[in-house]
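REQUEST ID: PR-0412
SUBMITTED BY: lab tech R.K.
PRIORITY: routine
TASK: structure prediction, single protein chain
INPUT:
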Amino acid sequence: MNNDAIDVILRKIRRNPKNVRFNDLLRVCDHYFGPPRQCGGSHRVYRTPWPGDPRINIQSDKGMAKAYQVKQVLGAIDKLEAKNESEE
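STATUS: complete
OUTPUT:
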């Protein structure tokens, strides 16, 4: 998926983290964090370049993402982008 499509999904998620399709959140997580290190059962766990929080552990709730998990993903993306900016 190209960066423009990810940006559109990310803007939508930031506007309303309570109404996010799980597949959209998956696409964003795959783009920012690569493939999940674990995807057994209903959870998908992504590796982050830092220890501890925010962790990326998402699961589908009848096709929708859980709002608190969406907020964790957004926090992790913000932290990742800040880390990348400070390294430049």
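NOTES: The CA atoms of residues 5 and 28 lie 10 Å apart.
REVIEWED BY: pending
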